[in-house]
Each structure stands twice: as structure tokens, then as C-alpha cells.
Design brief:
With 177 residues, this protein is of the alpha+beta class. The chain has two domains: 19-54; 57-173, Thiol Ester Dehydrase, Chain A (Roll). It has two helices and six strands, in the order αβββαβββ. This is Thioesterase superfamily.
Length: 177
Amino acid sequence: MTAVALDENNRPYRQLPELVDASDAKRIDRLREIALQRKSMSLRRKKMEKFVDDLPQVSLEMLGDFSRTEWSEKAPVKDTIVALSTSFLPCHLNRNGTVFGGEILSWMDKAALYCGRIFTGNSNMVTVPADRISFHLPVRTNDVATMEARVYGVRESKFSSSNLGRKNVKSLIPAIS
């Protein structure tokens, strides 16, 4: 998880103290190296996600030799998109007057499950993982936000859904996987 310190104008606060470890001077360098590796992995993953997003369809045949049932049908990615709009109440706000990230995560989960229910025709759905979520813009109570979810991967008993958020047609939440 990454947290950002904000100034009185809700802009990133740049005057943070330097991070040190008096008992292990090299520890901070190791942590920086790990952070660089994670950033590199994130960039590679974004590239892979873009490749998948650009695919014209998702199908079980794409998985090669994995065992699967007889049923195999192709579904264009664009046909799996579900869009949900909502507005938030003052009880959903944090001290900065913006919607709690947990409220947005809950909404993302509901959108993904709804997308999955429609795609599979099965109402018995659960979220397994959610990884690499970034919030780029705040959501306030006067915003009407739209969440789009789409299927971007299919396995024998699982599918992967991606949530894309829009706030007044601006990008709010990038894809998750």
C-alpha cells in the first residue's frame, strides 16, 4: 500500500523527512531497490494488461492445454462491459471531504461481481484477489461516478474482471486485476 501526504490544498506534501535506519544503514538502500523492482514489475504488468485489453475476444481456447469442460464459447470483450453509476453521501467521506477508498473498493467489488453474474449466468460469485489498485483523483459527494467492469480473462472455474472508473468522464480508477 502506498500513502501520500497532502498539504492544506490537498496537493502532495513535498517536505517529508528523509528515511533513515540508524541500526542498519544499508536497509534503506535495499528498500529503495525493492521499490524500483516493484515499479518495474508494475510497468510490465500494465503492458500485459494493455495487450489483453486490446484483444478482440476472450475464450477458453486461449488457455492452451489447461483441462476444461466441453463448453467453450467466445465472447467479445466489449460485450462483457457493465456500467454502474452512483453518488456518495456525506457518511462516505473522510476528513478531507472525499469518499473513503474503502467505499470505492466495495463499489468496485460489487461491479465486478455483477459483471461476473451476467457473464456466467451464475449468481454464486465471490471475489478471490484484488491487486494493484491506484486512486488517481478524489471523489466528492457532488460527483456522479460511473464504474465500468469487464471480463478480461477466463479459466475453467474463474474469470478475471477489470474495473475502470470514470468521474465526469475523467479517469478515476485504472484497471485492476
